[in-house]
Automatic annotation (TrEMBL):
<dbReference type="InterPro" id="IPR020019">
    <property type="entry name" value="AcTrfase_PglD-like"/>
</dbReference>
<dbReference type="InterPro" id="IPR050179">
    <property type="entry name" value="Trans_hexapeptide_repeat"/>
</dbReference>
<feature type="binding site">
    <location>
        <position position="68"/>
    </location>
    <ligand>
        <name>substrate</name>
    </ligand>
</feature>
<dbReference type="GO" id="GO:0016740">
    <property type="term" value="F:transferase activity"/>
</dbReference>
<keyword id="KW-0808">Transferase</keyword>
<comment type="similarity">
    <text>Belongs to the transferase hexapeptide repeat family.</text>
</comment>
<dbReference type="InterPro" id="IPR011004">
    <property type="entry name" value="Trimer_LpxA-like_sf"/>
</dbReference>
<protein>
    <submittedName>
        <fullName>Transferase hexapeptide repeat protein</fullName>
    </submittedName>
</protein>
<dbReference type="Pfam" id="PF17836">
    <property type="entry name" value="PglD_N"/>
</dbReference>
<feature type="domain" description="PglD N-terminal">
    <location>
        <begin position="2"/>
        <end position="79"/>
    </location>
</feature>
<dbReference type="InterPro" id="IPR041561">
    <property type="entry name" value="PglD_N"/>
</dbReference>
């Protein structure tokens, strides 16, 4: 089936590359709103979003929304569904998954992701190198980047989990949380919460003084 990639940024270029080489879809173009076209660049033709139904109707073409921004990705998800489009999902052949994995539309499971059995991913979830324990449930419109979830964790709608963050087993992450890089979550979180780890401290020592190390 033909596939349109929404977006012209680096995630869109990455998505187009892996969809083309590692899925049954055939990339035919990118699309973006007319007002952004002047500065848009891509390896495939770029179609104004406003003209998409006439050029590539829903009967022949699927769409993947390649945006990291959760609010915009959610808005566009509903926009394309209202227009009648099927939203394509991608699971990398280089991800480690089990046959009973369940996922919705516009889901992206990138290479290096490691998902144990009995996992459910709702619509519009993006996983970049995430490790998910058994029986995790990931609600819609989330983004998980390089995080680790122990078994039976629930991640609420619209949440973001950053690089090297970790969540203890049986914990429920609230909706629209931001779990920053390196944060460790050991108990349930409320909606709209933000967590961050303590930043690393620069030592008052020149690296050249560490003999035998550099």
């Amino acid at each position: 089936m033909q596939l349109i990639i929404y977006g012209c940024g680096r995630f869109a270029a990455y998505a187009a590359y892996v969809f083309q080489l590692d899925s049954p879809y055939q990339i035919v173009a990118h699309c973006i709103e007319q007002k952004y076209l002047a500065n848009a660049k891509a390896d495939y033709p770029i179609i104004p979003l406003e003209e998409l139904p006439n050029s590539f109707p829903p009967s022949t073409t699927a769409v993947f929304i390649a945006l990291g921004n959760i609010k915009e990705r959610k808005r566009l998800f509903h926009y394309f569904k209202e227009k009648g489009y099927t939203l394509a999902s991608y699971c990398s052949s280089k991800a480690d998954v089990w046959p009973n994995l369940q996922f919705g539309e516009n889901v992206f499971i990138g290479e290096g992701s490691d998902l144990q059995p009995f996992i459910q991913l709702a619509d519009n979830c993006i996983l970049f190198g995430a490790r998910l324990g058994h029986h995790c449930q990931i609600q819609a419109h989330t983004l998980l980047s390089g995080c680790t979830l122990a078994g039976n964790v629930t991640v609420g709608q619209g949440s973001f989990l950053g690089l090297q963050s970790a969540v203890q087993q049986n914990v429920q992450i609230g909706q629209y949380n931001i779990i920053g890089m390196g944060a460790i979550i050991s108990q349930d979180t409320p909606d709209y919460a933000i967590y961050q780890a303590a930043p690393s401290q620069k030592r008052n020592l020149h690296s050249s003084k560490l003999k035998g190390f550099l």
